[in-house]
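User: I'm writing a short report section on ligand binding and want a predicted complex to refer to. Could you take this sequence and glyceraldehyde-3-phosphate and write out the structure as tokens? A short remark afterwards would be nice.
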Amino acid sequence: DGDEFKYYIEGEWKKSASGKSVSIINPTTRKTQYKVQACTQEEVNKVMEIAKAAQKLWAKTPLWKRAELLHKAAAILKEHKAPIAECLVKEIAKPAKDAVTEVVRSGDLVSYTAEEGVRILGQGTYLVSDSFPGNERTKYCLSSKIPLGVVLAIPPFNYPVNLAVSKLAPALIAGNSIVLKPPTQGAVSALHMVHCFHLAGFPKGLINCVTGKGSEIGDFLTMHPGVNCISFTGGDTGIAISKKAGMIPLQMELGGKDACIVLEDADLDLVAANIIKGGFSYSGQRCTAVKVVLVMESVADDLVAKVNAKVAKLKVGPPEDDCDITAVVSESSANFIEGLVVDAKQKGATFCQEYKREGNLIWPLLLDHVRPDMRIAWEEPFGPVLPVIRITSAEEGIHHCNASNFGLQGCVFTKDINKAMLISDAMETGTVQINSAPARGPDHFPFQGIKDSGIGSQGITNSINMMVKVKSTVINLP
Ligand code: G3H
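Assistant: Sure. The structure tokens for the complex follow:
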């Protein structure tokens, strides 16, 4: 039951010496779909050693050659979109069309990174000493960007391909090597993606992929002395990692509770369409999903009616049929979502639809008249359930947004650009979208969270710059 996949080390596919595997449960059927190797700590040690050696040579490989290989990998990735998308459908229940989009977007990201990398990394700085008081022109400082070493990339289940390449490609163009630890749900999609890089002909040992239980190799990986940078996307684990990691650059994108503030003058059809897209696409399992609607009381009834009309049209069912709402990733996730729903019910929220669940499949639900004493007002369901809080002023909306421990993105809907700008400035989030739902892309835009939503800024340019350090050489004249 379930094909077994090998892990990737030194350009080869291998079985773990542990003789054990980890099962990947298909969220829709709840049966074992695939198995991956349960790698051991010894195997992690070996991978680190190999990655370190490969990086030394890669750093000496001309930048244009690194870019050429990335372009090749991008093209191969796009050619393999169908089998990779099929894995995404089976492993994480991503709707078929969205699964293909994820792979194509990933190919584009890799190509763009290659382009951006040759530009950014091809430039350095040149300083002369006599601009600083007391100095003659006797010192010339030449600075360039050099790689960090081994980058540990840990993507989440919801974009196992795209959020893997968004770490791999910047690391590689900048001259680093990679140890990838994919999420268990999504590991086979990630291994297929790695295979595309293998086919592109990257040097052996430069890209490695270990699989296994986070409980067995998670801390061992993140605290490993061979790691020179960690790029992580996921949940609370990121906070624990940042406390345990050494003195190395960290890039973390964690949870979010993205607020959607709706003012009285907003185009309510536009808002409703964005709430559906923002709140329910991939069944709400996006860090940038709209996770709380804060709407002015005077337009709330109209907006809720418009959203409800659209919720009724969402297709619920298997990802293979391209349904809008598919099973959430695991039973424990479904149970957590249910816990939030039950709490809101007990505390008097209005259910706009009947709550319905079969296995991991949860029907879309809008909860109106949510109040701050309900868990769902603050916690992140990562599922197709969306709370609506009615507000009487924009300040009340800003206050709710800023009282959250998260600060990823937020959005505001109004026709008044002045108000929108003031609200954007007041919202304590990494990004504010005006008149559109939150989203990470286009993938070259800066992407960052504040507070518990993360540290560092992503997006192609920022990621490349984060995965290098500055090296200076000073020429001293007598
Ligand atoms: O889940 C977290 C992702 O970074 C969100 O990306 O806005 O493209 O869905 P997205």
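A remark for your report: DSSP finds 14 helices and 27 strands in the chain. The longest strand covers residues 139-147.
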